[in-house]
Amino acid sequence: MLKHSLQILSLRLRQKFASVIRMSNNHGAELSIEEIARLSQLEYTHDEEESCDMKKTILVWGLPGPQASSVAIALVGNPLFTIRGIFNKNCPEVARFQQMGVESEIVEISEKGPIPIIKLNNVFRDVYGVFFVTNDIDPLLPMRREMEVGVKLAEMCERLRIKHVIYSAVDFVYRITGNRCSRYDGKGEIEYQMKGMGLPLTVLKLPLSYDYLVNTLIPTRQGSDYVFTGIVDSKLDFDVMNYSDIGPVVKLAFERPNIFIGKTIGLTVDRIDINKFVQLMTEVFKETKIDWRYEKLSWKEYQRDKKNNRELATLLDFHCNYAPLRDVRTMQALNPNVQTFSEYISANQKRLTKLFKLVKT
Known about the structure:
With 361 residues, the chain is of the alpha/beta class. The chain has helices at 2-24, 33-39, 66-76, 92-100, 117-123, 143-159, 173-177, 182-197, 210-216, 247-255, 257-260, 274-284, 299-304, 310-321, 328-334, 341-347, 349-355, and strands spanning 56-63, 81-87, 103-106, 129-132, 164-169, 201-205, 208-209, 220-222, 225-232, 238-241, 264-266, 270-272, 291-297. β4 (129-132), α6 and β5 form a beta-alpha-beta unit. The protein is globular. Mean pLDDT is 83; it is low at 2-28.
């Protein structure tokens, strides 16, 4: 009885502490929901120094990743922009984007070897604005290499005086918590250095992605049950979104540089916890009559087994306890056609059935 009471008290104190931490991390020049609502109603504004007849070239780095693809598709319909898409390698998507009207360039950057500066100079020619995201295609690229590439792109923007840079970032886990997280910290360091350069910068702060969750939280079959193993138990919720929904946000930012430059925008679409994640699986796949559950491990229990995904644990711990609280209305104002997590799961049933290797009972 006493042990149960202490556990409840500990949970409540942790939730209270987490909410204080998360509220205190809501710093910086983030746009308020009132500003978002106002600017979404404004007409497109252009630089007075530019001719209205001259198309602005927007460079989109990171194709065919979900974020860059979303941005290119959103921008290509705007008659005031010419879109130059940068691919890391030749792939079938190159031809598809060319058919859409995207100028396609290939800049191969591997884990090792020199960064092709001459090629970069070529693709950055006559560019007005740049959207870039690092490691969206190859998440296994080491953090040091990601930082090297990201800083080099930032230096290119500074040297060529690019007028608007939009960087897709995440929160700097190490600077906030002291815990290392290679998936996030490389991007955090790039953002930190770009701000130090004084670039005309807009930063989009993204939460956990739907794709990352379903590709990482893969259940194992135990009899008639499908069990999510190796998950740190948490009663706290965390922000998630489909990264493919950011295209309209970037389009709006390029159309209204006088409002977006110098701003950081925290985005989220949905808020879930681990229990809700499992419940959604049960609801969406109810026809399979499969029982879904997850093993509830404490942080100490989790740390004992080195086989567990420490990166996932660090990210869930960060997003549950330390990540700044963000308002879903921000994303709804910038892009009304976002996809909730439940809608994402329903739309991807066939892919998830194959990914999870589901068998009807």
